[in-house]
What does this fold into?
Amino acid sequence: MSRAFLLGLAWRSAWNRRFTLALTVFSIALSTFMLLGVERVRTDLRSSFSSAVSGTDLIVGARTGSVQLLLYSVFHVGAATNNIRWSSVEALEQLRGVAWVVPLSLGDSHRGFPVLGTTPAYFAHFRYGEQQPLQLREGQRFRDLYEVVIGAELADRLGYRIGQRIALAHGTGEISLGAGHDDKPFTISGILARTGTPVDRTAHISLEAMEALHVDWMAGAPLPGKSISAEEARALQLQPRSVTAALVGLHNRAAVFSVQRQVNNFGAEPLMSVLPGVALDELWDVVGAGEQALLLMSGLVALVSMAGLMSVILAGLNERRRELAVLRTVGASPWQVLALLALEGILLTLAGMALGLLALVICVLAFNPWLQAHFGLTLDLRQVTSMQWLLLAGLLLAGWLASLLPGWRAYRLSLADGLSPRI
Amino acid sequence: MFPPSLIPGLATVRALALAAGVLATALPAAAHPHAHTHGHMDLAVAIDAQTVTLALEGPLDGFLGFERAPRNDAERKRVADMVARLKAADGLFQPDAAAGCRLQKVELDSAVLGLRGAHGHGHDHDGKAEHADIAVDIVFTCTRAAQARFIDAKPLFEAYPRLRSIDVQVAAPQKQFRRTLGPRAARLDLAGR
It folds into this structure.
């Protein structure tokens, strides 16, 4: 029996069953979409995590967990248990091998966005991603005491422009608890270019401004009957007494462990220092467990749709017994029947995967701006991970095997019972 | 509409990231190197243009099976064997041949055994402590340190079966990261990423 004739028949048979088959293709497409989508999010979440800080050799803070120190100093999540003294920051600068120190002071917020008090050195030394420096989208760095440089996300979300005046709030809550710094408004002097890191959500002021905000405060509340106006505060000594943490850069990257040892054994107060890259890996160890669960879930989805594929073909097989038996009587060998079914299975799987991929590409393109704005996550379609190739190959193999089982059944049954008149 | 299958995924991931913040407080801090867990050691690897420095630190138990000054000839021999073996550190840690490394020096530091390194580690035990640690500083001089793709610690795990895991912090010129080595995964991968 000629191959072309057989294929033509198979095609017409498939066309006859197009609605069932379309459903199968759709379920394969869905599992392809899920598996690859989750894998994509997983990989890119990791890289956007680790791009949050680079070029910093050590983060120094009060003794706490290393992940916690990373979370509050870089991601502005959670709070420090203790501050470190300004004298300690000065001592850090004197350590052998230390090139620069950028002090960070946290604790205030503006409408739910964190406020970071720092020095101009922050803009010079802070790096993200692949050693990229911070750049201003418009305006300039803070020069005056009451100037603030805001991240791109903060600016876009609240619709802020250069020159606008904003008030900062005490504490980190979304809702101001009545205790604000309304008496000392800040002027927006600059807006940073988007980085895809926590910097985008942060308002940056000088350490002195942070101090000025709190000169008439004591123990977290305004001092009653004692109010120092914005102009009066300028005249005061605004040297900070303590900061939350400090970023440290070294002349020689490899000296990091000896500097770390010196910091951890610091005499004047208990300090600790972590390597940001190492702390990120530790953080990922925790998140990674959930991430594995996510991958497992999408694996199960794939399994379910493979089972669906198999059941659709098996169910169709009962209807097709006659068809296959007729094929056998007109001269098709059992092998040809098997090959036909296997071919149909692999084509279905391929079509489903192609559809799923297409859907993924469209979704990523369509929703990337939204993801970037809400999660600081950029999905990169161009970098296909080895895991993704593996997943694709696995899907193809599974789809093909799923279609082989019914094929094998058809191979055994095709002539035996298909021609009997009862159906 | 947003594809429904992606939203729960993302929400979960975000929740996980937040959960990590909560869990973080429960995590052991790698920066406190003095937790004393038998079978476990900490290793810091610094890679420079010309040198690869390894600082291994952990309970003496991992090397000796006891943690005090030797009391008889058999124990003294064990200590002497350990010192000799650690001094020949290139037999325990083998950097990628592509880096062209050779062992420059090894310093041992263990108060209980009366071994003092040149710079000390500032963790003198007063002798009454129940447990005792050892610190081993190893320096390799290399012609092309940056070319090293791995450091093999398999001989170390073979020589000391009591050693079950090593937490490794790596500071290379372009990246910092963390790895865990064990008898089954004894090769420290420096490439990748």
User: Anything to note?
Assistant: The two ends of chain B are 35 Å apart (CA to CA).
